[in-house]
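The material for today's practical consists of a large collection of protein records. There is nothing in a record beyond a sequence line and a structure line. Backbone structure tokens are a discrete shorthand for how the chain folds in space. Nothing more is needed to start thinking about how sequence determines fold. As an example, a complete record with its sequence and its structure tokens follows.
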Amino acid sequence: MPPSSGPAPSPERSAEAPTSRPLPAGESSSKGGGDNIRVATAKVDSMVDMLGELLITQSQIEQEAVRRFGQNDPLVTHLGRLSRITKELQGLSMSLSMVSLKSTFQKLRRLGRDTMASLGKEVDLQFVGEDTEIDRGVAEKLLDPLVHLLKNAISHGVEDEKTRLARGKPPRGTVTVSAYSRRGSVFIEVRDDGGGIDPEKVLRKAVERGLVEPGGSRSEDEVVSFIFLPGFSTAGVVDGVSGRGVGMDVVKTEISRIGGRVDVHNTPGQGCAFVLKIPINMAILNGTIVDIGGIHYILPTLAVKQILQVTDDLWVSVQGRDAVVRVRDRLVSVIPVGEVLGRSFEEGREGIHLALVLELDNRVKALPVRSVVGRQEIVVKPLNEAFRSLDFVSGASILGDGRVSLILDVEALFKYGGEVECRA
């Protein structure tokens, strides 16, 4: 039978037999060894956005049906099933924009070898979890922070051979970069078995540079976190390879921009690990919806450590203001809501029934709210020009009742209020 003379497949979407050639960015491949299909990334992004809108509309219809007919009406049951199918379809579409960390790890492997060659230093590099998947847009923003962390680990984390032998360690140090996913987040860890971070050296340098006030009682974790302060460095000499602390504020800033955070696990004399916690996808957020002054706001659920029922005996006044609240046996700073939102917030204690205890970088603060409306997965929308000047807002979403709600930036909230946190 003669071959078909029909039109050739579109270059944006054509079936191909599997080959050994790596797929370009934006291509999707089946893991079962079947045919591959090229799809323009813009089309995938548009599909994800449209399904997000569908999910919002579905939620609005479901809420209206419950209001009109009650929770037990058959229509509400059918809408609930439709909602589950829509969420599954959305998850499937979002998976099309996911990429593995294999390419990122390959670049890090090459850079690690180059760094060792320039330093004349031998280090065992190990990479684990390269098949871990993450949103393509997030992956593109991860490389620079990871490059910096890897250079730090090789050049200043791992000791020289003589020092390691004197400490009873193997002559060659080890740096491990590992990745895994859990509960909607990807964790990437850069760990070395070197000398770790010296808290005394960090504190001394921070005081010398005027970044912190001398004196006072500080935990080791708090002191180590000073390496993220702008302009901090413990490196005595600036060379072609970043030193421990050089630019760490940039690493934290870049990770924060993609909705992530950086944790440090330090064991002086034994090594240090930097753990990046990043959302698998930036388009969906598990949010806690709260009522503040009659307006609904959204907070990332991962940042909410505890919901505390506020009674008069829990408030502690400082300089005539309710600046501290008791949380078990601790006094925790209260985020001044009126100052943050830039409007009067005169409800006083009578209008405050709950406080959300938020956690960030081993610090906690309390955010007073009228009520917790609920928790749900929300579709994150970018801010328009009118809201981009608000430093405490990271995005927006449309709730099930059709109202637009702002997503509060937890890191920005922690800049407000004092840093009082001590035993009661």
Summary: The domain at 99-279 is CATH 3.30.565.10 (Heat Shock Protein 90).
